[in-house]
Amino acid sequence: MISLFPKDGVFYELFDKQAEKLKEASDLLKQILDDPQKLEELSIRFKEVEKEADDLGHEVMDHLRKNFITPLEGEDIDLLRQNMDDILDHMEKAVNRMAIYHVAKPFNQAIRDYSEVIFAAISEIYQGIKEIKNVRKYHVQLHDRCKKLNDLENAGDEVNRTALNSLMNAPGADCDKVVEIVKLKEIYETLENAIDACEDVGNMFETILIKNQ
Asked: From the CA atom positions of the chain, what is the Rg in Å?
């Protein structure tokens, strides 16, 4: 049944829940880096969190289809949902590959550097999601978060350049080393994709800010 008026705050509530799942994923990745021996165990929970976030995304779409009037433009709601979902998808894939490929422990500095950028970006997103409920009140903070997320994406690019340069120019490229390079390259690219998706959320904040201030 189509409704002219959405339930009060239902979209914001669902975005809050999605942001909580991102924060939980960030905390899980921190635990994995702190205790690599828990990788296999925590990767299972990671997949559960990703599935729970998917379910929240489906709820957003269900409400979007049922409500004629929404607090934000329907396209912006859909893109914000999708961008947050992409972050978690890329994070889960990276953790999954780390487990399947039996990446050497402790994890190298490159994986840690990518992760630090992701942690910082998710922290900005977590707060920004709360602020889009009242764009006029928090427009300065949201603008600052957009800039920080863009800066973090640039930092992620630098991590990526450094990591790939080190990986591709490592001496002694025997067969085992080549296999390791292929595995790590995929993980690096997946972590970079997560960072790019964080910037996409920042771009959506900017779009929402411009349209609603």
From this structure: 19
For residue 108, the enclosing domain spans 10-212
State which H helix or E strand residue 65 sits in. Answer: helix 39-66
Question: Does residue 1 fall inside a structural domain?
Answer: no
Residue given tokens 């976030």 in the structure block: 53
- Does some domain include residue 3? no
pTM above 0.90, yes or no: yes
| CATH code, domain with 197 | 1.20.58.220
* pLDDT, tens digit (0-9, with 9 covering 90-100), for 110-168: 999 999 999 999 999 999 999 998 988 999 999 999 999 999 999 999 999 999 999 98
Q: Give 125-128's long-range contacts (Cβ < 8 A, gap of 24+).
A: 125/19, 125/22, 125/84, 125/87, 125/149, 125/198, 125/201, 125/202, 126/19, 126/20, 126/22, 126/23, 128/201, 128/202, 128/205
- Provide the residue type at 172 as one letter: G
170 in Cβ contact with 159 (< 8 Å): no
Number of domains in the chain: 1
